[in-house]
Amino acid sequence: MGENDKMKLNQVLLIGKKVDLFVGDAEMSYASRIEDLDEKHLILAMPMDEKRRPIIPLAGTSISGRVAAKYSMYKFNTVYQDKASEPIPVWIVSMPQKIEKHQTREFVRIPITFPLQVQVEDVESGDWMPPYRTKSIDVSGNGIRFFMNRHISQGTKVLIKTEDLPIVGSVQACCEVVRSEKPRFDEPVFWIASKFISLPKKTQLSLIRFIFQKQREMIAKGISE
Q1: What percent of the chain has pLDDT over 90?
Q2: Where are the domains of the chain?
Q3: Where exactly are the transmembrane stretches of this chain (predicted)?
Q4: Could you read off the pLDDT of 2-34 as tens digits, one per residue?
Q5: 3-103 — its CATH code?
Q6: Which stretches of the chain are DSSP H helices?
Q7: What are the residues whose beta carbons fall under 8 Å from the beta carbon of 36, sequence distance 6 or more?
Q8: 107-220 is classed in which CATH architecture?
Q9: In sequence order, what are the residues at sequence separation of 6 or more whose Cβ sits closer than 8 angstroms to the Cβ of residue 182?
Q10: Do domains 3-103 and 107-220 have the same CATH topology?
Q11: What's the pLDDT band for 103 if we cut at 50, 70, 90?
């Protein structure tokens, strides 16, 4: 590992950082977090599936990860080695040899809060449930994450409608839930990550311009992760 690669790893792979993990060639990602690290290993919180069952690959399985830092997305490759259960369930993987910046305009994500209305599809009847008023957590040109008072299963369709946003206006789109997280077990609050599946291209481009404008404002104010 070169000095530049080592420096980049030290700047991006930080304890407490959220990580999206991909097992082998799978397209589905699992949410995790960096719990600890040393020169040879990365210790990651045990990822869970939709039913809160632990994901445990075979030793030697290739793992790729995606982590956000300084308004950019970074990708790395590693190898699953083992698991541990104390003090909390974790994966033990090899320390990546390098990490690469992987940022496209659609995937630039910024933390921003604004009111929105969400309607969840009733999977059994196909009807839409009554609107639920909530707030966003972050947004990209590819999707939006928001607060919810209950778990929503992966693959469920939701209709979202935002307030009028600068440059964009009101965003109204059908989304698909890609992940449902409950960051605190003692609070009835879920973080729902969703991707747009019916966002007009013109609206997406306006949303991306809005995101980059907000990103520049944050950088100018010295706001960083």
Answers
A1: 44
A2: 3-103, 107-220
A3: none
A4: 555 555 677 888 898 888 888 987 767 788 999
A5: 2.30.110.10
A6: 3-12, 201-220
A7: 15, 43, 90
A8: Beta Barrel (2.40)
A9: 151, 189, 190, 191
A10: no
A11: low
